[in-house]
């Protein structure tokens, strides 16, 4: 008789520790892979679990291996159909072990695996220099609130639903004919009465009544007042807190001056805002508006990847945004967030118009963030905030007026987070989104 | 339903512990009673697919120390499995006493029966009886040793940091293949008590270490004496030494006692798996033959239904499928197919030999006793000798084996032999050679080191048939050896036959 052991309930994740060690080891490679991925996936998809593929370079395990192209070998192969001794066959091109000679070696270069949401976000956050508190709150999923959801037959004593329990008990008592207290009392009274009377007839009746009383008592014990089958508990379900809708406007200058690097930074900026919003709102629409000297609402693909030539007129984008808001996103139903990325160029004289449009837009917006993407070499020159491009100077006036307006210059990924600082700070203070 | 329905051990695909154990008993009866197998007691463990993945990535051991490379393997297997590119094994069996057999929860009852016969009896018998396993591994000690290893490495990580431990393990893993004794018998796994004593001694040496000895002035000596010294020190160090891990563990000047212990752990594990690598064909062939025979016997005895048998046969056919060399599914010789076919062939030769068989196998042909013949083969051979001894012309024809010679200098492959009268011997010998791990693995040995001089570790690669080493890997591995040795390491490739030097390389100056 063998020993059967059921191990299925043992912990499953024996490899988790090893997996984490591996990820740590491959961190640099992974970071690069995730960065590539973020470039290629949609804003809204960042933060889900992702498949990454990475070369095994950083994590190779060298051993002494025979070189495929040296030496004399003999191979025995099955399935000969037409060869006779002395036949000469041209070697298959592309070298290596040829047909199956290597046999055991798995082709491990560039192998793929999935990262969990947490792991992707960790890597994504790494060079954004987010404070840990923020990272935690961004990774946190929905908040839940217990909500009544019917009754259950199990639960903790504090959750007993008395009314329901008593109703069940009552029904059962009737069905099983549990003797009522009144009946017993009446019988007992009669017995007391009879005990006082003498006579054989009374004795006989007394005995009968006594027996009946005993029977009732026994029955009462068998059918308890409250049985475990009667008990009902209030059941609670963890329900996600209802979230309102939000719309996020991404505005970007796509004129020729915005290169790969600028767009990449802009994308990270948008992704971060989206991650933040996703935590607070159940449904988020994203509207992409790109502009040169005229603005259009476009899809994400076009927004990031197609180029358009022309001048730069920022006000057109703001006009387009106001138009979309008026048409589709009434401010009393939607929480409106807007993020604008630009290199600061604007046609002369347009900046003033921008300011007036922006003031109009700020009435609707929960939050408006403006980032100006500058060259890393320029970050020294623009260390002070007052001087800068015409757009920057114009927006400075709005900045003073509206507390929910943020503007900053970024030259590297680490600069992005400060734009949101105020937003995150606000979040802890007054949390409820507008309905 | 027929009257036999009453005798069925199980019906339908669901299993429970009652059917498992009933079936086990029926299988045991056939295995021990009819096939005369001799097994370690079994411990059958039911695991889920996630746990199977875990077991995969820790090289199938129930206990394993932590290392990132296992995580890498896990991530890799996990991905393939989730993509549906690869199924999981139905079972996993560990050469230990008691023999641990993992059964997957998802298997149907028919599969559980098959797997029980395959692993709990086939593999188990092989582990207990094959001479390689008997001589080179200690089934009863391995589990406690792994437990010790795991704890010890965890303790080291606590004391010296994960990075330091990983660095040593990385380097040790790199030369794991060169960490086995091939000819000399390895020292037995010592008991916990003895290991404890050894460790205490190391600690004592650590405490009483006195640096003063190093400062003693060297004695003066002449040329002749130096040469004699060289041969003497080789003798003292037992050189040449094929087991690099062993040599480094005992001789390296820079390793701390705990680092030596890590090398020892890796070496012990490498040695433990060495017989398995030499008996892949036989081991799988034995297990497959046993499950096939037992399942058929059970069917004859009406213990399993036709439906069950069909499922078993389908799975069996998948396992022993051997695609031809030009088939896209071809992945080298399938050890299950080859092993099973050879063992079935032995049965045939014993019971119904042809004239050819009587020529080739005069000692077993027609002896009628295939059970003892197989038991003897399982006990006393490894893949190489088994094929050399028992591969019959009939089987060479059946597989249509042919021999290709592949010379590096030539743009053509040449068909040297095919399945005909003149080719049988050559094909059989070549196939046997291809399973000789000792001959196929790179023969790299420590040949000399001057501990009092420059301390350069001199390795020699005996190049066979001109097969050299792949350079990137070679250099990276040498750096790992240097990491363990602490001083420069050089490697010379010498042609094993002509003695001519083919290449030289070293880790001169470059630091890890």
From TrEMBL, chain A:
Residues 45-110 are annotated as: Disordered. Signal peptide: none annotated. It holds the Pfam family DUF444. InterPro entries: UPF0229. It comes from the Bacteria. Coiled coil: none annotated. Residues 93-104 have a biased composition (Gly residues). Belongs to the UPF0229 family. This is UPF0229 protein HV823_12875. It comes from Mycoplana rhizolycopersici.
From TrEMBL, chain B:
Residues 443-495 form the SpoVR-like C-terminal domain. Residues 214-234 are annotated as: Disordered. Residues 14-438 form the SpoVR protein-like N-terminal domain. It holds the Pfam family SpoVR_C. NCBIfam families: PRK11767.1. This is SpoVR family protein. It comes from Mycoplana rhizolycopersici. The lineage of its organism: Bacteria, Pseudomonadati, Pseudomonadota, Alphaproteobacteria, Hyphomicrobiales.
């Amino acid at each position: 008789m063998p020993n059967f052991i059921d191990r299925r309930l043992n912990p499953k994740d024996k490899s988790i520790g090893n997996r984490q060690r591996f990820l740590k080891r491959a961190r640099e490679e992974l970071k690069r892979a995730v960065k590539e991925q973020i470039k290629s996936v949609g804003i809204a998809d960042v933060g889900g679990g992702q498949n990454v593929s990475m070369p095994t370079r950083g994590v190779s395990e060298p051993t002494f291996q025979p070189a495929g192209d040296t030496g004399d070998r003999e191979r025995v192969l099955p399935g000969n159909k037409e060869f006779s001794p002395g036949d000469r066959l041209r070697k298959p091109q592309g070298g290596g072990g040829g047909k199956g000679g290597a046999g055991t070696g798995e082709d491990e270069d560039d192998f793929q695996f999935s990262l969990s949401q947490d792991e992707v976000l960790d890597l994504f956050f790494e060079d954004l220099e987010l404070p840990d508190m923020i990272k935690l709150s961004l990774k946190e999923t929905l908040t839940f609130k217990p909500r009544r959801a019917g009754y259950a037959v199990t639960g903790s004593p504090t959750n007993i639903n008395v009314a329901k329990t008593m109703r069940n008990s009552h029904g059962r008592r009737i069905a099983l004919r549990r003797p009522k207290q009144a009946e017993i009392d009446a019988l007992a009274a009669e017995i007391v009465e009879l005990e006082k009377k003498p006579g054989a007839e009374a004795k006989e009746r007394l005995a009968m009544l006594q027996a009946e009383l005993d029977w009732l008592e026994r029955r009462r014990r068998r059918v308890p007042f409250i049985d475990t089958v009667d008990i009902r508990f209030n059941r609670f379900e963890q329900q996600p807190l209802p979230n309102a809708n939000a719309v996020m406007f991404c505005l970007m200058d796509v004129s020729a001056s915005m290169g790969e690097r600028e767009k990449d930074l802009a994308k990270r900026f948008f992704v971060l805002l989206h991650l933040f919003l996703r935590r607070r709102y159940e449904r988020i629409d994203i509207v992409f508006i790109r502009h040169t000297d005229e603005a259009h609402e476009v899809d994400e693909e076009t927004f990031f990847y197609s180029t358009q030539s022309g001048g730069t007129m920022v006000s057109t984008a703001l006009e387009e945004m106001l138009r979309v808001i008026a048409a589709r996103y009434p401010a009393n139903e939607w929480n409106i967030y807007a993020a604008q990325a630009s290199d600061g160029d604007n046609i002369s004289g347009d900046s003033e118009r921008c300011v007036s449009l922006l003031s109009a837009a700020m009435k609707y917006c929960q939050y408006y963030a403006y980032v100006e993407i500058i060259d890393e070499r320029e970050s020294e020159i623009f260390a002070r905030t007052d001087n800068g491009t015409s757009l920057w100077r114009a927006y400075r006036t709005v900045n003073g007026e509206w507390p929910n307006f943020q503007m900053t210059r970024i030259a590297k990924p680490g600069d992005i987070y400060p734009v949101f600082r105020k937003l995150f700070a606000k979040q802890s203070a007054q949390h409820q989104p507008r309905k | 339903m027929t009257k036999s329905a009453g005798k069925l051990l199980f019906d339908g695909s669901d299993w429970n512990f009652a059917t498992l154990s009933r079936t086990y008993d029926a299988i045991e009866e056939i295995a021990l009673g009819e096939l005369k197998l001799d097994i370690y007691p079994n411990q059958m463990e039911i695991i889920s697919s996630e746990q199977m993945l875990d077991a995969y990535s820790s090289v199938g051991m129930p206990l394993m120390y932590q290392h990132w490379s296992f995580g890498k393997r896990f991530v890799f297997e996990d991905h393939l499995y989730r993509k549906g590119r690869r199924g999981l094994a139905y079972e996993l069996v560990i050469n230990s006493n008691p023999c641990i057999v993992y059964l997957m929860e998802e298997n149907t009852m028919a599969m559980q029966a098959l797997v029980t016969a395959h692993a709990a009896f086939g593999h188990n018998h092989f582990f207990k009886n094959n001479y390689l396993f008997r001589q080179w591994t200690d089934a009863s000690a391995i589990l406690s040793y792994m437990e010790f290893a795991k704890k010890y490495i965890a303790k080291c990580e606590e004391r010296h940091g994960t990075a330091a431990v990983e660095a040593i393990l990385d380097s040790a893993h790199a030369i794991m293949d060169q960490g086995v004794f091939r000819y000399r018998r390895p020292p037995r796994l010592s008991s916990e008590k003895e290991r404890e004593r050894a460790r205490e001694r190391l600690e004592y040496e650590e405490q009483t270490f006195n640096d003063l000895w190093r400062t003693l002035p060297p004695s003066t000596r002449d040329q002749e004496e130096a040469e004699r010294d060289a041969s003497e020190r080789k003798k003292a160090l037992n050189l040449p030494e094929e087991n690099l891990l062993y040599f480094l563990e005992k001789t390296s000047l820079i390793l701390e006692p705990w680092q030596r212990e890590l090398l020892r752990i890796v070496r012990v594990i490498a040695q433990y798996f060495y017989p398995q690598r030499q008996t892949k064909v036989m081991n799988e062939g034995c297990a497959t033959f046993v499950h096939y025979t037992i399942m058929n016997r059970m069917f004859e005895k009406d213990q399993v239904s036709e439906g069950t048998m069909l499922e078993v046969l389908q799975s069996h056919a998948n396992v022993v499928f051997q695609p031809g060399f030009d088939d896209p599914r071809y992945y080298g010789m399938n050890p299950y197919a080859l092993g099973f076919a050879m063992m079935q062939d032995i049965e045939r030769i014993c019971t119904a030999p042809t004239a050819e068989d009587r020529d080739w196998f005069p000692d077993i042909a027609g002896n009628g006793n295939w059970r003892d013949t197989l038991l003897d083969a399982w006990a006393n051979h490894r893949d190489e000798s088994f094929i050399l001894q028992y591969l019959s012309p009939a089987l060479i024809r059946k597989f249509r084996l042919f021999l290709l010679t592949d010379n590096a200098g030539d743009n053509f492959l040449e068909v040297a032999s095919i399945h005909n009268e003149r080719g049988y011997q050559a094909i059989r010998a070549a196939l046997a050679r291809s399973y000789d791990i000792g001959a196929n693995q790179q023969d790299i040995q420590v040949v000399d080191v001057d501990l009092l001089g420059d301390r350069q570790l001199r390795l020699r690669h005996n190049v066979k048939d001109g097969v050299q080493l792949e350079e990137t890997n070679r250099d990276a591995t040498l750096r790992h050896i240097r990491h363990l040795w602490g001083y420069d390491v050089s490697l010379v490739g010498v042609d094993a036959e002509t003695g001519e030097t083919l290449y030289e390389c070293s880790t001169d100056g470059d630091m890890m």
